[in-house]
């Protein structure tokens, strides 16, 4: 049989193929789709005779038919891609790695905030301990609680004016309606601190704070009377150990007297009245202020409210001549009074700073722990005699306070219609 040969184009000699030194110089090897897309429409011909555009180098095919039916195909040399074509049609997946420094920064920021919060709680407890110790030392030798309370408000007022004057804290702009709303809060705030100092002057620090553990009881009663907020059964149940523990501690307290007991109870009443009033007499939302600013304003108001009352009830008793005539060390009394006043204002400020960072429930639990720390530290410092039954009563009352702070957030289920 005769062999038949078909020739598409004149045969040309092909140079020996060499692997390019730069693999990316020519890009990809032969791709018929790529070739067809690079041809112009005018370069297409009928299926029998195909003419490739002159812009591309002409290639030759040799297709033979013989008795051995051998089929030979010459290899194609790689075609150079048009400039910019590979970049335009290449699809690449790139994985961007997140730098480890981002995660480390977040973790370090979280650790810093935790340490900062722990430091604030430590300062809160420390300032409370020093306030109660130095305040008790002053009241033991200088039995004028109204004058001592006024001195504490005076130091607080100086600190507030100093912060406002040097722009350490923004000075508020108050309207007449805001002042009218804050005055009742300042009144009960003044009475609450006055009754606390009266109780500290009559009984032991540990007993005053044990009685003040009954604050949740007054909060529940006043909220139900004036706000219509009735407690859940869980809250009522948590009040039982509080009342029972305080009663047991009072019955076995070595320093018990009715003046100190009722002063502490009056302090509970006025302090919780302040909380109820702050909800009842609400300032407009667009005119609201933060707690630190509100406390600063109340401190200044309390000083001016208590000044005439102090002169009327006790006269001017804090002069060096009077303290000396009472046989006291003027320098010692003044320094202890100053430290107590500074610690009083500092622990109030830190308490509000903590409240801005945590939930009210967490703050309430922290306040319960603070009371435990103050009671234990005062017993150790003043060597207060404590009987086993008294310790049990105090422990039960504080456990009830802790339970109250936990169940307070349990909301009653809505009634089905």
From TrEMBL:
Its main location: plastid. Residues 1-12 have a biased composition (Polar residues). Signal peptide: none annotated. The lineage of its organism: Eukaryota, Viridiplantae, Streptophyta, Embryophyta, Tracheophyta. It comes from Rhamnella rubrinervis. One of its GO terms (molecular function) is organophosphate ester transmembrane transporter activity. Residues 1-23 are annotated as: Disordered. Keywords: Chloroplast, Membrane, Plastid, Transit peptide, Transmembrane, Transmembrane helix, Transport. Residues 116-405 form the Sugar phosphate transporter domain. It is found in: Plastid, Chloroplast membrane. GO terms for cellular component: chloroplast membrane. It holds the Pfam family TPT. The keyword Transport applies. The chain crosses the membrane at residues 117-134, 146-169, 292-313, 388-405. It is a multi-pass membrane protein. It comes from the Eukaryota. This is Sugar phosphate transporter domain-containing protein.
């Amino acid at each position: 049989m005769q062999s038949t040969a078909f020739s598409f184009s004149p045969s040309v000699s092909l140079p020996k193929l060499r692997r390019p030194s730069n693999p990316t110089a020519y890009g990809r090897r032969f791709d018929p789709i790529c070739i067809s897309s690079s041809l112009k429409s005018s370069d297409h011909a009928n299926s029998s005779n195909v003419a490739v555009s002159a812009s591309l180098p002409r290639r030759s095919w040799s297709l033979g038919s013989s008795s051995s039916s051998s089929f030979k195909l010459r290899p194609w040399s790689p075609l150079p891609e048009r400039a910019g074509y590979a970049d335009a049609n290449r699809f690449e997946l790139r994985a961007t790695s997140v730098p480890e420094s981002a995660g480390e920064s977040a973790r370090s920021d979280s650790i810093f905030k935790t340490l900062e919060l722990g430091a604030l709680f430590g300062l809160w407890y420390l300032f409370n301990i020093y306030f109660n110790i130095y305040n008790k030392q002053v009241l033991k030798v200088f039995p004028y609680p109204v004058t001592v309370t006024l001195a504490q408000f005076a130091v607080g007022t100086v600190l507030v004016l100093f912060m406002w004057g040097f722009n350490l804290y923004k000075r508020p702009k108050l309207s007449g309606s805001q002042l009218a709303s804050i005055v009742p809060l300042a009144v009960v705030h003044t009475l609450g601190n006055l009754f606390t100092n009266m109780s500290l002057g009559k009984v032991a620090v540990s007993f005053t704070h044990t009685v003040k553990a009954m604050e949740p009881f007054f909060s529940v009663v006043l909220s139900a009377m004036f706000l219509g907020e009735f407690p859940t059964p869980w809250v009522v149940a948590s009040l039982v150990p509080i009342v029972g523990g305080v009663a047991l501690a009072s019955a076995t307290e070595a320093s018990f007297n009715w003046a100190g007991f009722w002063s502490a109870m009056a302090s509970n009443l006025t302090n919780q009245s302040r909380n109820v009033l702050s909800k009842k007499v609400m300032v407009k939302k667009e005119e609201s202020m933060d707690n630190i600013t509100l406390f600063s304003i109340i401190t200044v108001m309390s000083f001016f409210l208590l000044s005439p009352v102090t002169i009327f009830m006790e006269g001017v008793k804090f002069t060096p001549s009077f303290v000396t005539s009472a046989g006291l060390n003027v320098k010692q009394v003044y320094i202890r009074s100053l430290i107590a006043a500074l610690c009083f204002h500092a622990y109030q400020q830190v308490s509000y700073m903590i409240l801005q960072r945590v939930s009210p429930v967490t703050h309430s639990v922290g306040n319960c722990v603070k009371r435990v720390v103050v009671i234990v530290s005062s017993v150790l410092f003043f060597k207060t005699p404590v009987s086993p039954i008294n310790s049990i009563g105090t422990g039960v009352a504080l456990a009830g306070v802790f339970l109250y702070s936990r169940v307070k957030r349990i909301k009653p289920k809505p009634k089905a219609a």
